[in-house]
Amino acid sequence: MKTLFLIARTHLLSRLKQTIVAVLGVTFGIGTFIFLISITTGSNDFFVDVTLNNSPHIHIYNDIQTDRASVLDLAQEGEAYANVVRHQRPRQTKPNLKDGMRIVELLRQDPRVYDVAPQVSSQVFFQYGPVNINGTITGVEVEAENRLFDLGEKIVAGDMNALPAAYNGVIMGSGLAKKLNVGVGDRVNITTPRGSTLLLTVVALFRTGLIDLDNQQSYATLATVQKILEEPNSYITDIKLKLNEMDRARTIATEYAQQFGYTAKDWQTANAALEANLRVNNIIIYGVVVAILFVAGFGIFNILTMMIYEKMKDIAILKAMGFSGGDIRRIFLIEAVSIGIVGALFGLVFGFVSSYAMSLVPFENDIMVQMDHLPVNFKLSFYISGLVFGLLTTTIAGYSPSRRAARIDPVEIIRG
pTM of the full predicted structure? Predict the structure, then answer.
C-alpha cells in the first residue's frame, strides 16, 4: 500500500500546476460553503431570535368577521312588496374578548404555559405640534410584558418601571418618537378613532430591531388605554402567552380556540412567510455551493483523465510488473482523495478566516439595537459537513477515471 501512495504522490507532483489548480478549486468551493452558510445561518438566526423575542407563542384575539347577511334576507317569503337597500352598514362590533380576564386566569393555571400577558390595543393618532402620525397604543401589565418579551432590555432611554407610577405615561417606539421629534419627558396628544383625546407623558423609548414595530408601537398601562377608549377595567382585546415548549404551540393553539371560542394563532402560522423565506435562502445557498463543488469536481475529473492519457505507458509498465487493475484504480483514487483532503483542509481554514474577518466588520445602524457587527454562526457541524462534502465530491470525480485506468490493456499500450 505504501508503494501505491508513493506512485500517487509522484503523479501529482509531476503535474504540480494542474494539481494546485484542482486543490484551489476544492479550497474555493469548501471555503465559499463555510463562508456563505456561516453568514446566512447567522443572519437567519438573528432575525428569527429578534422576531420570536417580540412575538408570542400563541396570540388569542377576537377575529371580527363582517356580517354579510343582508336585511333583505329577513324579508318574509311570499310578501308582495319591493325592498330597496343601498350601502348596508356592517354591524357595530367591539374587538374585545368578552370574558378576557377569566381566560387569563385559566391560562395562568395551565402548567404548559410559561406566562400570560393581557393587552388592550387600539389604533390612534399621535400629535405633537403640527405632526400627526398614525400608530398603535397597547395597554399592558408591565411586569408580564417584561417577562414575556424582555421589554426592559429594549429600553434605550428612560425607565420602563416608571410607567406604572406615571400619570398617563407612555413608552414609545424609537422610530415613532423620532418621527414626532419627542423624547423622554415630552407630552404627546393622542386621538382615538372615536375622537377621544388624552395627553400622555413619554417616560421611556424602546427599540426592538423590527422597523414596523418601532415606527408604530407604544405602550401604556392597561388602565390608561382602557380610559382612553372609555371602556371598563374588564376590557381586554388580546391575550399573548409563551409556552414552556414552543414546539407544541400549534396543537395547544387549536385546543384553546375550541375551548374559548376565539381565534388562537400560533407563532409558526404568524411567521409562516419568514420561515418560507429562510427556507428559500438556504436552498439558494446550498445550490450555489453544490454548483461550485461540481465545477471543482469536474476539474479533478479532467486532470485525472489527462493524467491517465499521459501515463498510459507507465500504467502498462506497472501492470506488466504485476500491479493488478485494482491497484491501478486505487492509485488514482488516492490521487483524487489526496486533492480532496488538502483542498478541504485549506477550504476549512479559508472559510473560518473569512467568516471571522466578516464578523469583525462594524455593522452599526439605527435599526437593530442588538446588532453592532454582522452575525456569523461558527457551528462545528458546518465544518464537518464541508469536509465530508469535499471528500465525497472529489472521490466521485476520481472514480470514473480510476476505473478507466484499471481497464487499460498493457499489451496494446506496449505494442503501440
Answer: 0.69
